[in-house]
Specification:
By secondary structure, the chain is of the alpha/beta class. The protein has two domains: 164 residues, Leucine Dehydrogenase, chain A, domain 1 (Rossmann fold, 3-Layer(aba) Sandwich); 149 residues, NAD(P)-binding Rossmann-like Domain (Rossmann fold, 3-Layer(aba) Sandwich), CATH 3.40.50.720. It is built from 14 helices and twelve strands. The strands form two sheets. The chain has a seven-stranded mixed beta sheet.
Length: 424
C-alpha cells in the first residue's frame, strides 16, 4: 500500500475538481494503489517573481508559475495563461488535464501548464513584451525542446510565443524554434495552428451531430467565449452550415435568433478588442447564454462555468467543451441523471490545439514544413481515431463519455510509469 502525502501547495477548487475526476477514473479501472499518487500529482513546479518597468517609470512585480505534471511519456506540453485570476492550483489542474489529453490522442508528451497573474488588457505592447520575455528568461533552465514545450493559452497569442522563442534562442546562442509552439509562421509556426483548437471542436461537433442524426442545416449554436478558440469554432461550424445564434466574452453576450454576423463580430473585436456594445445581436448576460435553447452549447472561455446551479437549466442537445474543465463534477452528475444532453468532454473536444502543436514541434525539429491541408487532414485523422477509442471504451464498460476519455488517458500514463519503474 502506498502512503498518500497530499501537498497543500495546489489547494484550490479547480485542482480538487481535477483530483476527484482522477479518483473516479482510477477507481473505475482499478488502478493499483502503488501507482496512483505517482500518476495523479504533478512532478514539479516553479514560481517566479517578474519585475517589469512600466512606461510611466514605475516597477511592478508580477507572479508567474509553471507546473510540469508528467515527464514519463516525453517532454511536457501545455499553454501559458496571462490572466488576473491565475493560481498555482489552477495551473496544476490544467497541467493534469493536459497529461490525460496528450495520452488520450496518442501524443508523446506529458502535461504542463504555465500562468502569470496579470490583466494583459491593462498592459501596453511594450510592457506585455517585457513580461513575456522576463517569464521565459526565468524559465530557461526549466523548459526546452526535449524538456517542456509551452504554447499559447488564455491571454497569450502567437506574437507572445515569438518573443518567448526569441528570448530562449538568445540564451542558448542559436535559433531554437521547437522550444514553443503557436508561433508566427515566419519563425517556424505551423500552417493551421491558429485555428486548430476551434477547427477540432467544430469537426468533432459535426461528427457527433451526424451520430445523433441532426442535420447541420437545422443546428443552432451558442458560444460562450469569443477568443481564438470560440471564434474559430464559430467560423468552422458556420462553414458546415450551422447557425451561430449567440456569442460572448467577459464584457457581455449577444443573441440573434437569425444568426450572429460573424464577419462583423470578428472585425469589431479586431478593432475594439472586446465585444462590449456590439450591435449584431440583443445584449444578454453570459449566464443567460448558457441557458439558451440551442442544438449545441460551446463553453470556450474559462473553467467551472457549468455548475450545479445551472446544469438543470441547460437547453442544448450537445455540449461541446472547448474550454478546459468548464463543467464541475456536481454539474456532471446532474447532466448524467438528465440523460438528454450528449457531452464531448474537454480532453477530447479541445485536443486539436495540442495535436497541431505536436505537428509544429515535429516540423521545427526536422526543418520540413507541411501545407495547411496536410495539417488539417492529419489533425482530423487523429481526432477520428481518438473519438472511436472513446466510444469503444464507453460501450465496453458502460461509462459516461467523460469517464471513458479520462480512463483511457490515465491508463496510458500509468502504464508508462510502471514500465519505466521507480528510480531508486
Amino acid at each position: 500500500m502506498s502512503k498518500v502525502i497530499v501537498s497543500s501547495l495546489y489547494n484550490s477548487d479547480v485542482f480538487r475538481m481535477a483530483c476527484r475526476q482522477f479518483d473516479k477514473a482510477a477507481d473505475a479501472i482499478n488502478l493499483p494503489e502503488t501507482i496512483r499518487d505517482r500518476t495523479k500529482y504533478p512532478r514539479r513546479c516553479l514560481a517566479v517573481a517578474l519585475p517589469i518597468k512600466r512606461e510611466d517609470g514605475s516597477i511592478t512585480v508580477f507572479e508567474g508559475y509553471r507546473v510540469q505534471h508528467n515527464l514519463s511519456t516525453g517532454p511536457s506540453k501545455g499553454g501559458i495563461r496571462f490572466h488576473q485570476s491565475v493560481t498555482i492550483g489552477e495551473v496544476a489542474a490544467l497541467a493534469m488535464w493536459m497529461s490525460w489529453k496528450c495520452s488520450l490522442v496518442g501524443l508523446p508528451y506529458g502535461g504542463a501548464k504555465g500562468g502569470v497573474i496579470c490583466d494583459p488588457n491593462q498592459l501596453s505592447q511594450s510592457e506585455l513584451e517585457h513580461l513575456a520575455r522576463r517569464y521565459m528568461q526565468e524559465m530557461v533552465n526549466f523548459v526546452g525542446p526535449h524538456v517542456d514545450v509551452p504554447a499559447p493559452d488564455v491571454g497569450t497569442n502567437e506574437k507572445i510565443m515569438g518573443w518567448m522563442m526569441d528570448t530562449y534562442s538568445n540564451h542558448v546562442g542559436h535559433l531554437s524554434p521547437a522550444v514553443v509552439t503557436g508561433k508566427p509562421i515566419a519563425i517556424g509556426g505551423s500552417q493551421g495552428r491558429r485555428e486548430a483548437t476551434g477547427a477540432g471542436v467544430a469537426y468533432l461537433t459535426r461528427k457527433y451531430l451526424e451520430d445523433m442524426k441532426i442535420p447541420l442545416s437545422k443546428t443552432t449554436v451558442a458560444i460562450q467565449g469569443f477568443g481564438n478558440v470560440g471564434s474559430e469554432a464559430a467560423l468552422a461550424l458556420a462553414s458546415y452550415g450551422a447557425k451561430i445564434i449567440a456569442i460572448s466574452d467577459y464584457t457581455g453576450a449577444y443573441y440573434n435568433p437569425k444568426g450572429i454576423p460573424l464577419k462583423k463580430a470578428l472585425s469589431y473585436v479586431q478593432y475594439q478588442r472586446v465585444l462590449r456594445d456590439f450591435d449584431g445581436g440583443e445584449p444578454i448576460t453570459n449566464e443567460e447564454l448558457l441557458e439558451l435553447k440551442c442544438t449545441v452549447l460551446v463553453p470556450a472561455a474559462l473553467e467551472r462555468v457549468i455548475t450545479e446551479k445551472n446544469a438543470a437549466q441547460l437547453k442544448c442537445r450537445l455540449l461541446a467543451e472547448a474550454a478546459n474543465g468548464p463543467t464541475t463534477n456536481a454539474a456532471d452528475r446532474i447532466l448524467e441523471e438528465r440523460g438528454d444532453i450528449e457531452v464531448i468532454p474537454d480532453v477530447l473536444c479541445n485536443a486539436g490545439g495540442v495535436i497541431v502543436s505536436y505537428f509544429e514541434w515535429l516540423q521545427n525539429l526536422s526543418n520540413f514544413y507541411w501545407d495547411r491541408s496536410e495539417v488539417l487532414e492529419k489533425l482530423f485523422a487523429i481526432l477520428d481515431k481518438a473519438k472511436d477509442s472513446v466510444e469503444a471504451q464507453k460501450r465496453k464498460f458502460k461509462f459516461s463519455r467523460r469517464l471513458a476519455a479520462l480512463t483511457l488517458g490515465i491508463q496510458r500514463v500509468a502504464e508508462a510509469k510502471q514500465s519505466r519503474g521507480l528510480f531508486p
